[in-house]
Amino acid sequence: MTLTVQPHRETLGLKDGRLLIGGEFRETDETWTHHHPATGEEIGSFAVASVQDVDEAVRAARKAFDEGTWPRSRAGERIKILRRYGDLLREHSDELRGLQALDNGVPLSFGQIYATSVGIAADIFDHHAGWIDKVGGQTLPPYQGGDHLAMTFREPVGVVAAILPWNAPFVLFAQKLAPALAAGCTVVVKPSEYASFCVIRMVELLIEAGLPEGVVNLVTGPGNPTGEALITHPGVDKISFTGSRAIGRRIVEASAGTMKRVSLELGGKSPAIVFADAPNVGLAAMTCMGMVTMGLSGQACVAHTRALVQRDAQDEFIAMAQMLAGAVTFGDPFDPAVLASPLINGKQLERVLGYIERGQEEGARLVTGGTRLDGDYASGNFVAPTIFADANNDMAIARDEIFGPVLTVVPFDDEEEAVRIANDTEYGLGAGVYTNDVRRAFRVSKALRVGMVGINGFQLEPHIPFGGYKQSGLGREGGQSAYEAYTELKTVMMPL
Ligand code: NAD
């Protein structure tokens, strides 16, 4: 494998990363060195924010909220700056995609596709800029008689802590900062330690777009001390988090003391239900296998990792999924022919290989894959696209979020059984239904306890609410309700 980081560092002008607090970039004594997941090569270092640094960042955001112009600014001013930022993101798209390829190894070929795309992040800023002059309150008539007026107003929730995972840094940055800034909040953002360089650049561009001092603050570093200091800080009004269920739970605990508002986008074990009458069983197989291999190698929260396939359609489904598995290419993420990324780190590699071993021990049939790539790929965290068939829903490979290129195929006989298996999970993020029967498609969609159902296909767009039931999270990103989640509702009453 031929990736050499240094020339890309030079072309992209990559510098060591600094914090941004109250409008000033600053270095720290402690730093974090990031290594490329495809080669283990050192990419660079960035500042680790201490408890003290986080405290200063929150205070700067508080000051900008309590005393600054942003929460009190005219709608037109905020719209202008957020739209300018969207344009800046588009102008810097190639640079940002390159930084992402260095950070988390997502290939350039995939950096145009929804979750990893800069263009969609820009669209999300445009979308939320559009709400600024449209979301207001209500005027309510008296209920029990009398002559009085009640009105509601939407006001910004305050200081927002935005905590990001590493897998889709652009879109997830936008899903949090666009509505927060549109609503007039101030923000402290913490990227993942495995994808910080591209987020640092996104923050620099926000300043270039004209955001006033202290409105956005950046603290880089790992979950501990940086993330912990942020979620336990009494000066934070709202935490908006995307990441694992374990840290989501920790955030709910840590917020209880000061009753922080919380939005959580967590994991999933999303089922795709493929009926034998699907318009195209092969296409359904390509969609599921594509979601667990292409681009992020299955490190995607909403990937359809559990394929529930009606028995008569199984052979066709598996044959097509296997064909796609064979077509996935790995290697240097800057090579346009490369389609999939490595796993993010050694810990994740061991975890995925552990699940593959467990699937075999539990009696599922390994159709393809199941191994780490060797030879040229041995220095990276690459796992071959893997398919398990004849699995049942009690197996760990059907229950746990593996976050790797593993598709688990579970057979079913009828609609009732399919719905029961699909809902037999602690998660509830997304699902797919593949059938030619329209009434069945809607019946099953209604019965599924998930936040998003794709019928014969799945698409994500800035205005479509995104989020999950059950332990997949709290709240939704995208659309009007996401904007409103960064506001408080105030009621003002007056006798006439
Ligand atoms: P993670 O939970 O390990 O880390 C997420 C972020 O939390 C990182 O910035 C990390 O530094 C920080 N963090 C860790 N410990 C913390 C603590 N104690 N306090 C505060 N912050 C802390 O998740 P990850 O490995 O980066 O991402 C993978 C997970 O994200 C998967 O479970 C995936 O399903 C989920 N995810 C969900 C969505 C969604 O929209 N539902 C999207 C992408 C990823």
Short description:
The protein is α/β, with parallel strands linked by helices. The chain has helices at 5-12, 51-67, 75-91, 93-103, 118-129, 169-183, 197-208, 223-231, 245-256, 281-293, 314-327, 346-361, 396-399, 415-423, 438-447, 480-484; strands at 19-21, 24-26, 31-35, 42-47, 139-140, 148-156, 159-163, 186-190, 216-218, 238-242, 261-265, 271-274, 306-310, 365-368, 386-389, 406-412, 430-434, 452-455, 473-474, 487-495. The chain is built from 16 helices and 20 strands.
What labels describe this entry?
496 residues, alpha/beta, Aldehyde Dehydrogenase, Chain A, domain 1, 2 domains, 16 helices, binds nicotinamide-adenine-dinucleotide
If you had to describe this structure to a student in words, what would you say it looks like?
By secondary structure, this protein is α/β, with parallel strands linked by helices. It has two domains: 18-30 and 44-267 and 473-488, Aldehyde Dehydrogenase, Chain A, domain 1 (3-Layer(aba) Sandwich), CATH 3.40.605; 271-455, 3-Layer(aba) Sandwich (Aldehyde Dehydrogenase, Chain A, domain 2), CATH 3.40.309. It has 16 helices and 20 strands. The strands form five sheets. It has a seven-stranded mixed beta sheet, sandwiched between helices. Helix 3 packs across helix 7 and helix 10 (281-293) packs across helix 11. 52% of the residues are buried. Bound molecules: nicotinamide-adenine-dinucleotide (NAD). Residues 163-168, 190, 192-193, 222-224, 227-228, 231, 242-244, 247, 250, 265-268, 301, 401, 403, 429, 473 line the site of nicotinamide-adenine-dinucleotide.
